[in-house]
Amino acid sequence: MKRWNGWGDDNTGYPLPQPAQAYLEQKLGRGSAPPDVALETAVRRVPAAPLPGHPLITTDPVDRLLHAAGQSLGDWINLRGGTVPCFPDGVAYPLTEDDVRQLLAYAQKTGAMVIPYGGGTSVVGHLSAPEGDRPVLTVDMGRMNGLIELDQDNHLADFQAGVRGPDLEAALRARGFTLGHYPQSFEYSTLGGWVATRSAGQLSLAYGRIERLFAGGRVQTPEGDLELPAFPASAAGPDLRDFILGSEGKVGIISRATVRVTALPERETFLAAFFPGPDSGMAAVRALARSSMSLAMLRLSLPEETATNLALAGGGRLIDLLNRYLAWRGAGPDKCMLLYGAVGGGKEVNRALRRAAVIIKEHGGVPVGARPGHEWRKNRFRVPYLRNVLWEKGYAVDTLETATTWSRVEQTVAAIETALRDGLKESGEQVHVFTHLSHVYPQGSSIYTSYLFRIDADPGETMRRWQLLKGAASRAIVRCGGTISHQHGVGLDHRSYLAAEKGTLGLEMIRSVCKTADPAGIMNPGKLVP
Amino acid sequence: MKRWNGWGDDNTGYPLPQPAQAYLEQKLGRGSAPPDVALETAVRRVPAAPLPGHPLITTDPVDRLLHAAGQSLGDWINLRGGTVPCFPDGVAYPLTEDDVRQLLAYAQKTGAMVIPYGGGTSVVGHLSAPEGDRPVLTVDMGRMNGLIELDQDNHLADFQAGVRGPDLEAALRARGFTLGHYPQSFEYSTLGGWVATRSAGQLSLAYGRIERLFAGGRVQTPEGDLELPAFPASAAGPDLRDFILGSEGKVGIISRATVRVTALPERETFLAAFFPGPDSGMAAVRALARSSMSLAMLRLSLPEETATNLALAGGGRLIDLLNRYLAWRGAGPDKCMLLYGAVGGGKEVNRALRRAAVIIKEHGGVPVGARPGHEWRKNRFRVPYLRNVLWEKGYAVDTLETATTWSRVEQTVAAIETALRDGLKESGEQVHVFTHLSHVYPQGSSIYTSYLFRIDADPGETMRRWQLLKGAASRAIVRCGGTISHQHGVGLDHRSYLAAEKGTLGLEMIRSVCKTADPAGIMNPGKLVP
């Protein structure tokens, strides 16, 4: 069953080897988490719902608890500590677009606010119910999950937007196609959610971000349906798809989405190489991003992440051997691991990887073959499960990300890491911080930073630590001129940093679009542009 | 000097060989154009301007006449017949962003409406002054044409947005870079104009449309400046660049634009092949568009265009030989010419072209080598000059374009061509119509149709013919589900067809963005979304 207060299925674990635990103890001190609040206890804290009855809506407190939060660390702290501040008053599971239309009409009539809900994987507070007197209805799109049509002539597929990653790929793969969109949340997140939050997948270098894959569809708004025809391209004024991409539920509910699909590639290969340090590694990925070879992935772990990953892998003889081999080849304590891959025809993949190897060697990189790439591929959607076991060991994990131009990457990484590392100095707590670059462009790169700190016995104190750290890192991003999000969106957690990049006038423009489709402001209130 | 009532520099001709003229006479009958109204006469018809004085604004009637129209066929008919209905009351040539700010303040104070003007190459009526009592100020951005900064570290270049194609490329090429954006209007159109109209260049297969190249910049609006930071990518809500792309001057004046640039390629090679008919040709370009090889251009002329191009090339022994060789290889009267090209490193270009040749041959194509590609490359920006000489011979030429999914291409081409071919039946006039596909995507293709008809002695009758044809073809596009423009925009000429693809709600969303930046509605009134 899906965990109600953690990540993923509760039958799937991610055991932490003993040396990994020792590594963290050495970094952060011994951890210990207070016992989680039980589901039954949490459910008892859900207040009675003031929502008028409707055949499509349940007010069952379990449904309401399960839809009260997403997957941000703040959400976790609230769920596990029993401190979720607000709950939706009802949850609906529409099966058809007509159901969605009825639910929007109901909300308009009753004055309820509407929170669209895809897979529940938001890490920035998209799903939280706002405080206040107005009733709140969460619309869970998870049962609108079918393939409507695969148009093989035009390489387009039309889905109900609540479809999750695995179901979407299964429907396409059965017919020889793929979307190729693999965010880390792939197993739970939905097509509609990807569009609403401008998601980027692990192979975006080959397939593009969701912006490129989303060809059209239908958005159901309080003011009626918005149809987005799937033209291959158009110059007929502003493209309305771009008013929906990143709209975070504030314009309406994306009920169906047409996506651009690709014939299934013959092969996917992922390899690894190590660089002596971050400078050579970054120079190499920049050169690779600018080359015209068709790579599908470039992911460079900076030194601390490289060391952490090797430690979490459990050490042992093989890792020792690898470390010694790499040190002999010049990649010592500052070494950076690069994962790189290609997808396509067998010959193409070979050629792309051969040419990549040349650039890697030119920059002092040491190829180590397919094993780490194979491991990465196997675990690519399992990493979030690590959060569960770390929590049990007493460590909170959060990640945050930005993107910036190449010349600012180094200083931005340093500013974020310093803000986090020093963020709990006042309470004498350590923070373990590490970073990788996972989406690279000719102009710059995303920066993805993970940080771990000890959970306190008091959930309020853990929350305070998290907010301190998140705030310090977000301010560092803004100060360095990065975007507040490369791939997760704005929601509640990033909204106060948005003006820095959009400006007052820009925010007003976004508000005007939302207001046109939703004059009463009932859609996902408080998020993105309050 | 730049022609005031035609295309391009008046020292550049495009002589029409005798056999080409005979070909047109056979298709359309002998043509004859009435004498053009002289510049002096046209200038005398420009009425006195009611505009209050301002040091940055000239009310000289020559300036006002030269800014009264673009390059649509309707514009030509009016310019050459002396029937331009309205003129801007003043023209300003700002040199700095502060000048632009002053001009917008002046417009707000005096109640003037503002038409942003780039290179004057609009073919859809973007530049026409509206009728009515309110004064109209055209802001010609052509003197804001400098490179502000080439950021080699990040492959970004920041330009004043009035820079024209050749100046932009010269500034980049001197430092080893290129933008790679080559619309046919390249010699005159400007970076700001490309952004405002969602332009597509001839090599968009390699470099992308302007949507991909435009990274950020500044838009000056009546409500203040909108800054667009040049992030490599972002998920921080809707992307404001997409509110500006296609905004056609209605949000504000794009004063600077940051673009993504690429290292100059080692080589550019363009080749040609012929297919026995449109089916095999289209199947081949579709397969090529879906292959992952790095081609830079695919342009397929359908049979009538292939025949017309060969005829306009003047026939002669070489063309005869080619025709006989092709017929012998199976490409007879229905043959279709494909131009295809690649840019990049020498080895890459060779490999891409070799692999393309395999797919071409699989579809029955006959490669004919580099000569037609070389000719195309030499004349790629000269084709519009043909309009001048054809007009002198008594023939009006217009082009229109759309994009649609692959399965609709054939029926859409047929519907457009039939609408045009039969469009003047009532007056017994012939229309010569031909089409190519110039921008291909995995999901579909652009359709670019040219049509010629005889000019009448009465400019009013020529205008009536054009409006009949343009209307019939536009309705055919809408009926077939195509976009009303793939690469030219909306302006005046396409605005009544826009609701078919945007919907009422969609149009309101676009209006709301314009209104936020321009509450008084002074920016380019009547265009896009009146």
Q: What is this structure, in a nutshell?
A:
Two copies of one chain form a homodimer. Chain A is of the alpha+beta class.
Overview of the structural elements:
Chains A, B: Substrate binds at residue 387. Chains A, B: FAD binds at residues 116-122, 248-254. Chains A, B: Belongs to the FAD-binding oxidoreductase/transferase type 4 family. The structure is a homodimer of 530-residue chains. Chain A contains 19 helices and 18 strands. Chain A is globular. Chain A folds into 4 domains: 39-142, Uridine Diphospho-n-acetylenolpyruvylglucosamine Reductase, domain 2; 144-262, Uridine Diphospho-n-acetylenolpyruvylglucosamine Reductase, domain 3, CATH 3.30.465.10; 267-378, Alpha-Beta Plaits (2-Layer Sandwich); 385-490, GMP Synthetase, Chain A, domain 3 (2-Layer Sandwich), CATH 3.30.300.330. Chain A is 38% helix and 20% strand. The longest helix of chain A has 21 residues, at 459-479. By secondary structure, chain A is α+β, with helices and mostly antiparallel strands. The interface between A and B is large, with 86 and 85 residues.
